[in-house]
Prior knowledge:
Elements: H1 4-19, E1 57-58, E2 63-64, E3 72-85, E4 91-99, H2 103-107, E5 114-115, H3 116-119, H4 155-162, E6 173-176, E7 180-187, E8 203-205, E9 229-235, E10 240-245, H5 250-255, E11 259-265, H6 277-284, E12 320-321, E13 331-332, E14 334-343, H7 345-353, E15 366-369, E16 391-392, E17 398-399, E18 408-411, E19 415-422, E20 429-434, E21 438-443, E22 446-447, E23 458-460, E24 462-465, E25 469-476, E26 487-491, E27 499-500, E28 503-504, E29 509-515
Parallel strand pairs: 3-7, 6-11, 14-19, 18-29
Antiparallel strand pairs: 1-2, 3-4, 3-5, 7-9, 8-10, 10-11, 12-13, 14-15, 16-17, 19-25, 20-24, 20-26, 21-22, 21-23, 21-25, 26-29, 27-28
Helix pairs in contact: 1-4
Amino acid sequence: MFSTRTYRSSVAALLFLLFTLPSFAQSFRVQCPPTTPLHPTALPLGASEPAYTGPSVTGQNSTPTNVVNGAIKCQQISGGDGYATMGNGVQTYLFAFGPLSGLADIKAGLPGTEFASVFNTVGDPTADPAYNGAVGLVPDPNSVPPGLLTGHVDPRAIMDIGVMNGNEPAPTMAIDEDDEFFLTLTNVGMIMRPDLFEKHTVHFHGYPNASSFYDGVPDASVAINIGASFTYYYLAPDAGTYFWHCHITPPEHLQMGMVGQIFVRPRQNRVPGGASLYDSLVMQQKDLRTACGNDILCTTPLPPQNSVLHANNKSGTPTLYAYNDGDGSTAYDVEYPVQIHGFDPSFHFIGMTFNPEPFTDMKDKFFMLNGRSYPDTVNTVTPGDPGSMQTPAADGTMHFSQPLPTLINIPAGGRALLRISDLDVTEYQTLASLGIPMHVVGVNSRLLRDMSGNDLTYNTNSITMGGGESMDVILDASDKRYQPGAIYYLYTPNLDHLANDQENFGGLMTEVHICNTVDPTSKSCN
Length: 526
């Protein structure tokens, strides 16, 4: 019998023969150096980033201070296609990015970004469910001496994992200020559309990228052909919530699902315990990359002088912040990425079968939070959980193509940071919170504070966003009226967006649960 796995392996073998060059000119590779001039010492496996005690460089000439901040982090993704299951059970075809590293973390609903020491490990994710290293990474037989890890990969392993493995949303990325981020995109091709020779790129929308070469806009950068890999490089200077997408025919590739989220965590998270948040922010002004001066776009304006210290939260772990606020005003206990998106099922069907698609008639019918519509937004992806939507992969096995639930669990007396981004192509979207006010602290990756330090944050019960916007919103359950067991709703008042195509009571809606405690890793309610 010609099984689906045999078919999948045969396709992978065929593409391998078509796309792979001799080993001395291999087209599939990854890059994740353990050291760089900014990070001269490799962090050992299991180590965390160093505490922030001062800038790495100062002055007009960026003079090194011998202080090492941040770390080297890496991620590998595939560009190709796949399927996702909508809230009404209909399978929808995608152009999509999929994970090729951090697979265990992504399946658990976490970002797939890993330290270099984790990324540069050799393993088999099909045999080791806890493997978070780069898929396909193998010792290089042509290195001197042979057997070094040089970025040489086994294309067969990449194709076996990457083919028809698209995620919606695309794999989440998370880095910290001062990190060096190496992101490898591998184009595995469109198996459902072999007539298409689609190139792909990664464009970090709104991100302060110093080099247009890594910006992902093909006019000024490069586009990645089928059978090739390219590694983007980013230096993380500004905290905030950003997002990314393919910049090849953006209206088509965004509508088809090639969208994801990246957020940058602030240096303030790494301030030593008991240190002054205000003094730390003053220290950051010595780094010209983030110094304010007279720059009206500065992301770190000083608040009024205060004596707030960096301390542990009630869970006994270091307090986290959305921005370098200097006064603790953006502190939170748990964070949730929330990506708003919409699909036009007719456009997706035509995209699977023939071109051209009807761009002018594009009309979303599925409205999603993290690739899901209610009630699937509140289902989690855990072993034995039968409720989460699953989609058959190319080999017939069930695949969690939408690994990010949108169930918001807040510990009683705590606060949840919602990193909300809107990547809808055709619609404005409104989200409203019933019972718990939204405290908007950042818009488009900028802390809401003027250059004089005046607080411009505000409370509201709803926010409206267009495609290409992001907001950082804190739901504050510190008041005693929010008791464990209470359930609130985050939903859209646009009633036609509370539907899964022709079915009502779905779409842009999820639940907010107040819990005794919340596990900071799994986000599960206790």
